[in-house]
Specification:
Elements (H helix, E strand, L loop, with lengths): L12 H14 L8 H9 L1 H5 L3 E2 L10 H13 L10 H20 L7 E6 L2 H11 L7 E5 L4 H4 L1 H7 L3 E5 L1 E2 L4 E2 L1 H8 L12 E6 L12 H8 L3 E5 L18 E5 L1 H4 L6 E6 H6 L10 E5 L4 E4 L16 H14 L1 H21 L9 E4 L10 E6 L9 H10 L2 E2 L1 E3 L4 H7 L4 H10 L6 H9 L6 E5 L6 H12 L4
Parallel strand pairs: 1-15, 3-4, 3-7, 7-8, 8-9
Antiparallel strand pairs: 2-10, 5-6, 9-10, 11-12, 13-14, 14-17, 16-17
Helix pairs in contact: 5-13, 6-8, 14-19
The protein binds pyridoxal-5'-phosphate (PLP).
Pyridoxal-5'-phosphate (PLP) binds next to α6.
Length: 483
């Protein structure tokens, strides 16, 4: 893939001003988010210092500088010990953990009578806690949307191991949304929802990490009324959208905090209804999860609530930073962040659509909705040359990296959405997957499918520190591929 050597940031200020004025005309509410420009200048100066255009917020959020300096100052002036003891170091850790737990509930407007917070390593760990402990039995069902992260898809292995059934509801191109009527038919399929009993789990993402589609939160009550428990993967949704657990009441919610404010990277949580936690059967016990365990008596008694799910020592030196990170988002204002990335996403979608080669052929095909309605700030797309051939996504990622632009390519651990977006048929996939041995590399997969690189898209995603200059610089970079 050849491009000119011009840096995407070597830009005529007048041109940038013109583009900015046109952007403001189309998205005037962006000006109401001006306070975030100040935050960008004070908390994220390192982006300018490193000449980096960061467009991978769905991969990982960025931490504000003060979160690190304040936390380092706190750690160096306090003594934290392993919790669960009355010694002062331990008691301080314990109280900070409980304060953070309470803050998480407040942040998501969840009643402490209804919900409990289980600290986990990340969203995947939270999803696994549910998957491995959900009481699947023969006759039970797991219902998944095609559009799911692999950490949700993986729950099907637990489901199958217990003889239960996995069903997928597809997404439909070009918007990559689920047909609501089809979903309702599948939800209605439980034999007799009043009397059948059993355990049935419906798991879907509040926002797709592939297409940015925001699947309806109304599905939660719809599914529950039909006898399903609902596991909401909120990992890609919560960094720039308000999840209000007083308005919607999923049984289980999984998320990672680094996606919301960048640091710490090793802490996520499962927010679960207290009654839904009781439904889970932990497959083992460990340090921290029991009240009593005996070797000679060969019995153990699980702790109540969240403690039964927190294996071993919590990340007590980092959990206080989660508390501070939530406060940071509250101070900046999640609604302001939401509006800002909505404006930038809208402009980027409009502009990507307008990029045309000399003969009018489109440079970009966006996978997913083309407007900001019911979608978030994650955009996946492919690029084409003037003859319509798809440009290599891996070469594009390398070229972007050389130009100081951080984006992502591939299928982003979301094979279902990727397969539909890229038009891979079940027949093609079966042929390749059935022909392979126990192991298959990405290259083998690509070779088998079309003799080329593994299938994939390009993804850019925006977040709390994004600016117009970021998206504009990215568009200038893309313009270099116009012929
Ligand atoms: C929608 C979604 N779910 C789950 C995950 C898994 O998150 P983690 O890798 O933090 O466990 C991700 C990560 O990108 C995601 O975007």
């Amino acid at each position: 893939m050849s491009t000119s050597s011009q840096s995407p940031t070597s830009l005529d200020p007048a041109l940038e001003r013109d583009a900015y004025d046109a952007f403001l005309e189309a998205y005037p509410t962006y000006t109401t988010t001006a306070a975030i420009d100040e935050v960008r200048a004070t908390e994220f100066q390192r982006l300018e210092d490193q000449h980096l255009v960061y467009l991978d917020y769905t991969g990982g959020g960025l931490y504000p500088a003060s979160l690190i300096t304040d936390h380092a100052a706190f750690l160096t002036t306090h003594v934290l010990g392993n919790p669960h003891s009355v010694n002062p170091a331990s008691a301080l850790s314990g109280s900070l953990i409980e304060r953070c737990r309470a803050h998480i509930l407040t942040f998501f407007n969840a009643s402490p009578d209804e919900y409990a917070v289980v600290f986990t390593a990340n969203a995947s760990h939270a999803l696994k806690l549910v998957g491995e402990a959900y009481p699947f039995e023969p006759g039970d069902q797991l219902l998944l949307t095609f559009d799911n992260h692999n950490s949700v898809n993986g729950i099907r292995e637990f489901d199958r191991a217990h003889g239960a059934r996995t069903t997928y509801v597809p997404v439909t191109p070009p918007d990559l949304r689920v047909d609501g009527a089809r979903l309702e038919r599948l939800l209605d399929e439980l034999p007799d929802r009043e009397t059948a009993g059993g355990h049935h789990l419906f798991a879907y993402p509040a926002q797709s990490n592939f297409s940015g589609v925001q699947h309806p939160l109304e599905w939660i009550a719809l599914a529950q009324a039909r006898g399903w428990d609902v596991l909401l993967d909120a990992a890609a949704f919560v960094p720039t959208n308000r999840l209000d657990l007083s308005r919607v009441h999923p049984d289980y919610v999984a998320l990672s905090f680094y996606k919301m404010f960048g640091h710490p990277t090793g802490v996520g949580c499962l927010i679960a209804k207290r009654e839904a936690l009781e439904k889970l059967h932990r497959p083992w016990f460990s340090g921290g999860t029991i009240t009593v365990a005996s070797v000679q008596g060969d019995r153990h008694f699980l702790a109540d609530g969240a403690a039964a799910f927190e294996d071993g020592t919590l990340d007590y030196s980092n959990i206080p930073a989660v508390d501070a990170g939530l406060s940071f988002l509250e101070t900046v204002g999640l609604d302001l962040i939401h509006e800002r990335v909505r404006c930038l996403t809208g402009w980027l979608l409009d502009t990507l659509e307008s990029l045309r080669h000399g003969d009018g052929a489109p440079l970009v095909t966006v996978f997913g909705p083309l407007t900001t309605e019911r979608r978030g700030a994650t955009i996946a797309f492919s690029m084409h040359d003037a003859a319509g051939s798809v440009l290599s996504h891996t070469a594009l990622e390398t070229s972007a990296a050389e130009s100081g632009i951080a984006l992502r390519t591939g299928c982003f651990c979301n094979p279902g959405a990727g397969e539909v977006a890229l038009g891979l048929s079940p027949g093609e996939l079966d042929r390749c997957l059935a022909a392979s041995g126990a192991r298959m590399t990405k290259d083998d997969f690509g070779q088998c499918l079309d003799g080329g690189e593994s299938p994939g898209a390009v993804r850019v995603s925006l977040g709390l520190a994004s600016t117009f200059a970021d998206v504009h610089t990215f568009v200038l970079f893309l313009r270099r591929f116009l012929r």
